[in-house]
Amino acid sequence: MEPFRPLEDIPYYYPCNFPLIHEVLRRQHGFSSLGLLAGARLYGLPACSSEGLVKTYFNKLNYKEAIWLMNGYTELGGLQEGLELARELTARGELMLTTGTSYYLPYCEDYLNPVYISKLTDPQSRLYLVDHWLAVYGVSETEVHIYDPVPARFKGSLPIPVFDAYWKGNQCIPELAAAKRREELHSYCTVSIAPEAPLSAAAYEEALLRVLLTHVHEFLAGREVESGGRTYFFGHAVSLKLLRQLAQGLPRTDQAAFSQASGFLFDMRWSRYFFRDLLYDVVRLPGDGFTAFAEEFDHLIRSWEHAHKLLVSSAVARREGESVTEVLDVIGKLVNQEYSFYERLQAYAGGAAPLLEQEGEDSEESASISTPNRDELLRIVLDGCQEIAYAYSAKAPGELGGHTPLYGRDGFLDSLGLVSLLAVVEQSVEEELGARIALSDRAAQQWSNNPFRTVDSLVAYLKGCLEEAG
Q1: Could you check whether the bond before residue 151 is cis, i.e. omega within 30 degrees of 0?
Q2: How far is CA 287 from CA 134, 199, 280, 282, in A?
Q3: 40 in Cβ contact with 66 (< 8 Å)
Q4: What residues contact 322, with CB distance under 8 A and at least 6 apart?
Q5: Residue 103: which of 166, 149, 197, 189 has the closest Cα?
Q6: pLDDT confidence tier of residue 369, bands split at 50, 70 and 90
Q7: What is the DSSP letter of 149?
Q8: Among candidates 239, 267, 457, which has minimal Cα distance to 342?
Q9: What is the CA radius of gyration of the chain?
Q10: Alpha helices, DSSP H only, in 97-254?
Q11: Nearest-angstrom CA–CA distance, 466 and 460
């Protein structure tokens, strides 16, 4: 077995898949970096929804997948078939990416930990069950050699029976049958990753510049995208949304609005960390000239983190009747400084490489939607009911199921709870099925026939909406 020396210095904010994808691409004799892989999916671009959720919304901007491609999952027939494939791939110097459960990994804090089960099956939990990724880089007669970078930072060997327990996956743990999930679970599954095209040194340099300039372009554009009854904010538009929240929440004694703004500002840091990594990857290119920009952005990050501390301390000042206008002034100046930074970066680097390629304007909207089966829709609706019942401290009459009354004389939701449930279901349908529907908008025309009386009637109505959209 060839020596395996994977990347060890992995920032804590990276998802577990990026270090593994990085190693796969390196094994295929191409150039790669974590900053490029994350940047190719616009992790360095501030983004949020009108509900205030700060996360990456790459698909809303209609860019094609670039740099690396995920070719899908393959479920194998069992352990022996999987080990044979692992031996074949690793003999060629390749890694085999697998999915399974951290519950049976001895080096993880989840190992045989009852908390792992309870936190996922608690009816009030907001957590979703997902499979864990790790890479296989060798197989002996008795052991499997694995690399699991996040969060365990483990590289070593597992006895084959232990690896088998991991590889069977979460779906083979009976106690997790009731856990909520947003993706399909697998057993004995592998993941196929490939480069969009092999990255030579020159192609890697161009890819970094394309990704960087796309971030700069989108930040300055500050787009607001309407989709599925929601608005998604990008780049400078996120900063402006923060200012509006602060202007509304700080002058009043509205603790909920203040807490929301504080959390929003805190979460904005993640995109800046990813953009900083991308900038420093560009700095490492020969003759780059970007060092001053990277150092300035470092200073901007520290200034934003200081602004968050000021905002938190202003909560005390506000309760004591002191003025908090200083916080608004500081953050307003930072918003302007950040915009100016991106303007100067664009002026310096503009034209050095083309932007990432976008799909045709109507391609995403016109794509046909395959209607999921009823059980899948029922699960989405029941998961939403659990989430809303927890959020509003509402108690459903008996065990949640298809016959549970939702709205009306016997329903457990009031009008606000119903609207919130529809919003949760809309978002789950979009995230899990890739379909955009606006249940609440359509509902205004349907009250005479009230499709929201029970869980079953909502599922039937949802299925009809998807068939119509398809």
Answers
A1: yes
A2: 36, 19, 13, 10
A3: yes
A4: none
A5: 166
A6: very low
A7: -
A8: 239
A9: 24
A10: 114-121, 160-168, 201-221, 236-249
A11: 10
Each residue's pLDDT tens digit, 177-202: 888 886 789 999 999 999 988 899 99
Contacting residues for 31 by C-beta, under 8 A, at least 6 apart: 199, 200, 201, 203, 204
pTM of the model: 0.73
Task: Give me the residue label for tokens 């993880």.
Answer: 108
Residue of 160, 187, 198, 2 lying closest to 90 (CA atoms): 2
Please give the structure tokens belonging to residue 75.
């479920």
CA distances from 436 to 42, 309, 418 (A): 21, 38, 19
- H or E element in which residue 234 lies: strand 230-234
Query: CA nearest 233: which of 361, 45, 79?
Result: 45
Amino acid in position 160: I
Torsional sign, CA 39, 41, 45, 48: negative
By residue count, the chain amounts to 470
Question: What values do phi and psi take at 192, rounded to 5?
Answer: -105, 120
* DSSP SS3 for 225: strand
Q: What is the pLDDT of residue 404?
A: 86
